[in-house]
Amino acid sequence: VVTNVSAMSQRCMSYAVPSWANYDPSSVGITSGPAQLNNLVAGEWRTSRSNAVIPDPLTGKPMFLMPDTQVDELAPFVESLERVPKSGQHNVWKRPERYLMYGEVSARAAEKLAEPAINDLFIRAIQRTVPKSRDQAQAEVRVTRQFLRNFGGDQVRFLARGFSVPGDHAGQVSHGVRWPYGPVAIVAPFNFPLEIPVLQMMGALYMGNKPVVKAAPIASSVLELFVRLLHECGMPRDDLDILNAFGETTNALLTRAPVRLTQFTGSSAVAEKLARQLAGKVRIEDAGFDWKILGPDVHEAEYVAHVCDLDAYGASGQKCSAQSIIFAHSNWLSSDVKFLATLERLAARRSLADLSLGPVLTVKTDTMLEHIQRLRSIPGARVLFGGSPLTGHTIPTCYGAIQPTAVFVPLREMLKRENFDACTREIFGPFQVITEYSDKEVELVIEACERMSHHLTAAVVSNQPMFVNHLLANTVNGTTYVGLRARTTGAPQNHWFGPAGDPRGAGIGTPEAIKLVWSCHREVIYDHGPIPSGWTLPAQPS
Asked: Dihedral, CA atoms, 242, 13, 45, 239, nearest 10 degrees?
């Protein structure tokens, strides 16, 4: 059990964590040089021959030294995974006590995350690597803690629940069981440095797999910190490996080691590349150009604008579930409703001072400004608010920094072939498109949703049952919120989160998601007899 938070923090991150509530870039200090991060392989923490310097996203100063593992250093990782049988570390017949062990580990880890000092440590660690407001970081820790609570006690073994069917005769019974893959891999994104890798790797471990986890470089410190916590809570040290590396080395490991399933969260382009390289042995939760439809019934416009602000600009828009486009019925855009004015006012309150606005870690400023100009060239399009770069900051130029931005594009212009791809391009930052439709244009909205290529999250803000049913019947998105409080960025631990319409789609958060992603079906038919009476050998053919 972790009792000394300072010692735990120093083991993983030996740098000064600033006070984010009163952030001053000049106050960020490295007490003894950048913190040295580590790989974990076969139960041992190791470095590599060389390190990559990971810069502070707010200042550009050195923050971590991350092992820059090279292809010729992969042998220990390959050997570690080769030692894992296809039948997994445990299954319904082999070492079932490990299901109980992981129930205990989860319960202990949840208890530790509930302690104020450790809870605060993880909040600040998240903010240090992926600058977001304290509320956003705290929500990530809270979701992770509740997930671990959900699978405490006996809940892990219930994930392996199967079924039986009577056979054709006495002594014959068929059993369907959930079966591990054995050696697996997780490639996790930067934007939720705790929640996404932890929920996926715990699901893999629960089902009897051994995962090697590759976090985004800037998020690797949070992963290491949490795995050290798991070790303190009783997880065997060799149950999980951590690889710190860049693309070439990661690809080499996935193709050289006997990885039987790779779960990838991140860029759709990378997801498609991995699917080809790994012969389809992937589970993907990739990009999402996520839509929200405001129905003809207008209720609580200020509250809906508040939710739209959170969905589009919370965490600087760097969520795979971020609201990318609003289809607003004309009733919402009338001057007396003041929906757009409220949304603009809420967006204008965001600032670097409290990290309600922060650096964009995957899209540069110039790229976002060029995209805004491209949309402005469409007839009838205009910038509703934002559209300018941030000033007076120390964010390095390798990252992006713009004001929360909304661009209006007329619906019929957006649907034109020459404009549609640009209008539905995902910008992983504080940016959204807003368009308008009338009662006679509902089918055009459905056409736009049908033509989008990725179907992760969506929202229908309406309390009209027939309108809602029509939209649900004719759209695809895997996580769809409906009603007055509908959002796109819920993703808590109490419901499934993942895409629909793609057989490779991954889920996260629930027993159904864990069973889908981290286990397969095995059928075992017991046939003990008795031998049928009067049985004889068949006659020898002439």
From this structure: -50
Determine the pLDDT at residue 33.
55
How many whole angstroms separate alpha carbon 13 and alpha carbon 36? 7
Pairing of strands 457-461, 261-265: unpaired
Render pLDDT for 463-514 as a digit per residue (tens, 0 to 9). Answer: 999 999 999 999 999 999 999 999 999 877 889 999 999 999 999 999 999 9
What does the radius of gyration of the chain's CA atoms come to, in whole angstroms? 25
Q: Are 457 and 507 in contact (CB under 8 A)?
A: no
Q: Which of 285, 423, 436, 449 is catalytic?
A: 285
In angstroms, the Cα distances linking 302 to 271, 306, 308 are 38, 6, 10
Sheet with 183-187, strands from edge to edge, namely 44-46, 39-41, 241-242, 210-214, 183-187, 261-265, 282-285
Residue 101 has, within 13 A of its CA and on its CB side, a CA count of 16
Phi, psi dihedral angles at 219 (to 5 degrees): -105, 0
345-392, pLDDT tens digit by residue? 999 999 999 999 999 999 999 999 999 999 999 999 999 999 999 999
pLDDT surpasses 90 at 3 = no
Element (H, E) at 328: strand 323-329
Beta bridge partners of 235: none
How far apart CA 270 and CA 264 sit, in angstroms, is 9
The residues with which 214 forms a beta bridge, in sequence order, are 187
Q: What residues have CB less than 8 Å from 120, skipping those under 6 apart?
A: none
Burial pattern 474-491, b for ≥16 Cβ within 10 A else e, equals ebbbbbbbbeeebbbbbb
Whether 423 is catalytic is no
Catalytic residue among 320, 423, 436, 449: 320
Looking at residue 327, the DSSP 8-state letter turns out to be E
Nearest alpha carbon to residue 487 among 479, 475, 495, 498:
479
Segment holding 459, helix H or strand E = strand 457-461
C-alpha 16/C-alpha 148 separation (Å) is 28
Token duo for residue 470: 């029509």
Residue 320 annotated to the active site: yes
